[in-house]
Amino acid sequence: MSEERRPIDDYVLGELDSAEASAARERLEPAERERADDLREISRMLGDLPAEAWALLDTPAREDLRAASGGAPAEAGEAAGAGAGATVDLGARREARRRVRGGSVRPALAIAAALLVLALGIGIGALIAGGSSSPSGRSVALAPMGTALDATPANDGRGTARMLPGGRMRLTVSHMKPTGPGSYYELWLMNSARDLVPVASFHVTNSGRADLEVPLPVPPAGYHYIDVSLQRAAEGLGHSGDSVLRAPIPS
Amino acid sequence: MSAMAATLQRPRAAPARRLRQAVDMTPGTPTETREQRLLLRRLAERDPAAAKDIQEQYGRVLRGLLRQMLDDAGTAEEVFQQVLLEAWQRGPTYDPGRASLATWLITIARSRAIDAMRRRVPEPHDPTVATALLDRAGAVEDHAEEVASQWRLAYLLSTLPRAQAELLRMRFQLNLSQSEISERTGIPLGTVKTRMVSALEALRALLAEEGEA
Q: In this structure, which of A2, A170, B9, B135 has its CB flanked by the most CB atoms within 10 Å?
């Protein structure tokens, strides 16, 4: 049997017309037929899923973020390798991305990069405090990631991200929990737990506000989400898994 | 024989119904992650952090389900908060042996969504419209059942290895043909088919795992 032509697979995947499907099904043994019918029904149900349900595959869960930031390097590496061919629906955008995989970053380089990004973010944030520029372009509102039962002040945060000409972004946040010693906020462009890029680090004072304009390291069109996480310097470069604000990037 | 397999072998049930039963109603506890075990413990202890854990681990599923059911983001968010509160309040009574946590939460969300939809149905002043309203109420429950089963399946899909899930996405969401998937991925056509069937098998196995009480 040719590898390219397996009627049972085509039947299961709904690739045959009704006559071919009937013929293929009739040739199966009863037990195999039942299995094939189940798989075909699962295929049908998958075809009926709304787009929002498929989006579950894009949104990183906290455990995924932790794994990607070093908690489970073997699993992250395996998934990255296995997904290399499977995530090509994202097309050429992927080539422009820098990926953060905590398990593959050397510690010294990671710390140096973290300090550099932190200094850059804080410096730019301080320079533009007071906001003399008048940003234009599309903006998105960032929603808090907390819950009604969670009184953590950070979860009352809100923010707006505005894309600026020249590949820059302006982020304005308020009602955020002030960052203490050893902690800071990180702005990310994100597709998934294993496909994200850090944009800038920043602190928030007792005012609960921050206003920063930063250059984007990659085109934002290649990403689905803007994410702000609360980071702890002692825990490394990767996403902490503690997202406090997030918004989808309009296509 | 697993409960899933037994359910699937009932001769009187059509495949769609049998799988719907598996997706909707079968008890069981799929393999738990460390995060899920921590959440279970917090639920049992009625720890306020449990609500945050639910939001992080199941918020996307529950919000998506509620938005689709209610077709109103504001109402969906309001009901979502009710679901969090109810799950937190009922946490100590949750029995992992009867239903997976995802199934339990989706069931709560479905019930609260139905409540919200029923509140939209006006009280009949004209007795002749009562039958129509009853029919509508039945339709509400059917719709809720359908949506809940979709999101239950979506949740299981999200637990598949990413490579498997992405292949299924290319075929069933993006409607790419197998040949197109082969061209895009550089994977030989026969391998694409084999991997897609394997992914479906994995999903079937998850359904079967759900069916094991």
A: A170
